[in-house]
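Progress report, Aim 2. The chain analyzed during this reporting quarter is listed below.
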Amino acid sequence: MVKLTHLDEKDRPKMVDVSDKEDTTRVAVASGTITMSQEAFDMIVSNQTKKGPVLQTAVIAAIQGSKQTSTLIPMCHPLMLTSVKCDVIELPKLPGFRLEVLAKLSGKTGVEMEALTGASVGLLTIYDMAKAIDKSMVISDVRLESKSGGKSGDFTR
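Predicted structure tokens for the chain:
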């Protein structure tokens, strides 16, 4: 049976001690999708929503969300991110958007949660800014696409 690292010997929650780990370059990419009505998609793409530029705001929100991960996820370490990049891909056939976040640092622990949080917050921002047009939007498939660096090695979906 695998022992969970966020529990101590008495099964109480704890933050993992990473003091003895080596600093390595760590990169994680996460993504997610939001589907919506054709009307909402068209209004977002043409920048005609009442709340302003949805996709640009979602990119900023994704970056900010990545930076705030440790304040939202209790056992995450506060990390000194060296880079966060966000890309929004139009998916006209859905219709909707795919949002990808890359988080990077040189440190003792990984950035998977930062990339996942960034993707989630970016998608939630799209929903927030377009909900007056379409409340039935669906956020889905938020997932880790890849990670590199650290003791556990590389992962690619």
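Residues 37 and 52 are 18 Å apart (CA to CA). The chain is about 30% helix and 30% strand. These observations will guide the mutagenesis work planned for the next reporting period.
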